[in-house]
Amino acid sequence: MSLLKTLWRGGRVLSPTSPDATAMLVEGDRIAWIGPDDEAPAADETVELDRALVTPAFVDSHVHLTGAGASLIGLHLAGLPSARATLDKVAGFAAALPDDAIVLAHGWDETTWDDPTLPTPEEVENAAGGRLAYLSRTCGHTGIAGPRVLDAHPDLYTLDHSVGTGVLKRMAHKAARGYLNAQIPVSQRLATAQAALERAASLGIAALAEHTIPTRSDPHTEAEFTGLIALGAERTNPAVHGWWGELCAAAKARDIGAHGCGGDLSIDGSLGARTAYLRTPYRDDDTTGVQYFTSSQVRDHLADCHRHGLPAAFHAIGDGAISTVLDGLDLAEQAIGIEAIRQARHRIEHAELLDAALTARMVHYGIHASVQPAFDAAWGGADGMYAARLGTQAALNANPFSRMAGVGVPLAFGSDAPVTPLDPWGGVRAAVRHHNPTLRLSLGAAFTAATKGGWRALGVDDSGSLSPGMRADFTVWDLTDGALPDLSDPLTPDPKCAVTVAEGHVIHRRS
Q1: Among candidate residues 470, 472, 467, 431, the one with its CA nearest the CA of residue 449
Q2: Which residues is 476 bridged to in the sheet?
Q3: pLDDT of res. 102
Q4: Which of 56, 273, 431, 491 has its Cβ near the most Cβ atoms within 10 Å?
Q5: Measured between alpha carbons, how far is 238 from 228 in angstroms, rounded to an integer?
Q6: pTM of the prediction?
């Protein structure tokens, strides 16, 4: 049976092998030919591009699909100016819910409020109309539970947390969110995730890396994870590459269809919650954050992944956490060998605070950095949350994209949605317009990190570039001047996606 041949013609194809190409032939899931319109081979179907620009499709290298979907169709608390506005939004949402519904919301950020005083547990529960309620912070590492949640799950008082202040952290935060999430049917979670996949396709994203964090308080996480992988296998959706975030569980990860083991396997927490693990204390609190795992545990996790043929990834934001991962690699090298480590495409997620020495160690081990430029746009700079937590100079040195790329650390861009929205052009723009000019990437380097870099970090070497023989993962944009937009100019609008193609299948067409 012959494969369908589709000719895309009359536009501008961004190809390294055919700089002046205006047409592209796709045969099945592969690019078969690229060149000028008048030399195009015969095809079964022809699509007129009307001068539009064709580029490689985006990859979002770090997402939480169900949470991202909930931010689109459920209750999301980002961008509100105060605790009062947050409670009012919760109350408005809850008013339309059944009496036995659960109010589980995400996104509050007190660093952007007029008054950083947090709502009390009683205020949260009252706003939810007396229902079970949990509001997690934008970073996803702390939250506020209503009293009913604590009463229903008294074991939360035995975990590492801060119940006395009304804010749950660390293991208590994960457990509380898991208890409430466990009461949401898996079918409902997947329907929510589908909304995120549709949104991703409409933004020119052909693949996403899902980072699932299992917790004992939610026994349905595995079913949700395998359901997400199945959604990504549907021809009408972007691909979903799943990371299973459990320590030394590579056999299980492999058996349930995960791409790798780890991902958001947290060595530390977040800067916003002051749980990112630093080598020196925070500027605004007498703490260095939290170290969840040791270098010996990192070594053991790496060994387990190598035994089962999977890559490993670690959530590490602070310089102390990044050092822990690299110390674990030092220990693992003795048993695994440097070449095996370099070939495995292990990753560090976030990698926000690192100096030249840590960067050099990442290069030594061939570690990919899965980074979120939107974090700098949201919280970086001399006056942002990072400056409050770390001091101005440290904040300006955070997320050193150009320094990593300049010495050979492979970069892949993600959103960490719902922490920041699915917004690939926004990520490219944030990298090009980093608050610190010396850490900015060129437009070409940033776009490559958001496209080809994501595929490379997943071990996929035959996508991310429009050349014959490569996979047909591409996007058609309403750009008619034949080039990527100048995102260094803040007035330049984001391009609009007309068509997204993943593995040769159209997954989005603008109506």
Answers
A1: 431
A2: 54, 499
A3: 86
A4: 431
A5: 11
A6: 0.94
